[in-house]
């Protein structure tokens, strides 16, 4: 098996997407691949041509991915299209079984309609709610959203909705691309 040089680039609001990337990195490296993990905020220092595969992961906050994700994709569309690639979205709505796949997740579907890139592999992972980590306003707004969507509203809530087995399976998919 040939060793691949893989870029795992992420955008995170509270650190959970980075945690998912760290787990993916472990799984991918077990497949004897070299993984470089970087935040989208620091990507300008990286030559994308030096990678065999490019994987992008991004979290949702208030129904949107970070604008830098859109900019990165737009600026690097030709390189992304030439490489093996994948995209995954992390959002709390994916905690619901009927919204936890690329075909059923409203945020991922909307995102794909807004970009020119067509990722070769897609995944959706449920995120995490940790009210004590949020600012006053984020806590207030997220609790309001959770109340509307029948999610947890206790201000002491710290729940990781991520299916880590699903994350590891996606890492194996990346190894096989």
State the helix count: 6
Helix proportion of residues, in percent? 25-40%
Kindly report the average pLDDT value.
92
Strand % is 15-25%
Low-pLDDT parts are none
CA-to-CA gap between the ends?
A: 12 Å
Structure summary, number of beta strands: 8
- Count of domain modules: 2
CATH superfamily of the largest domain: Flavodoxin domain
Give a short account of the largest sheet: 6 strands, mixed
CATH fold-level label of the largest domain:
Rossmann fold
String of helices and strands: EHEEEHHEHEEHEH
Summing up helix and strand content along with how strands pair, one would put the structural category as alpha/beta
CATH level-1 class of the largest domain: Alpha Beta
How big is the Rg?
16 Å
* Outline: globular
How does this model look, in words?
- With 177 residues, this protein is α/β, with parallel strands linked by helices.
- The protein has two domains: 5-127 and 162-176, Flavodoxin domain (Rossmann fold); 131-160, no CATH class.
- Helix content is 37%, strand content 25%.
- The chain has six helices and eight strands.
- Strands 1, 2, 3, 4, 5 and 6 form a six-stranded mixed beta sheet that branches. Strands 7-8 form a two-stranded antiparallel sheet.
- Helix 4 (106-114) links the parallel strand 5 (84-91) and strand 6 (121-126).
- Helix 1 packs across helix 6 (164-176).
- The chain is globular and about 50 Å long.
Characteristics:
6 helices; alpha/beta; six-stranded mixed beta sheet; globular; 2 domains; two-stranded antiparallel ribbon
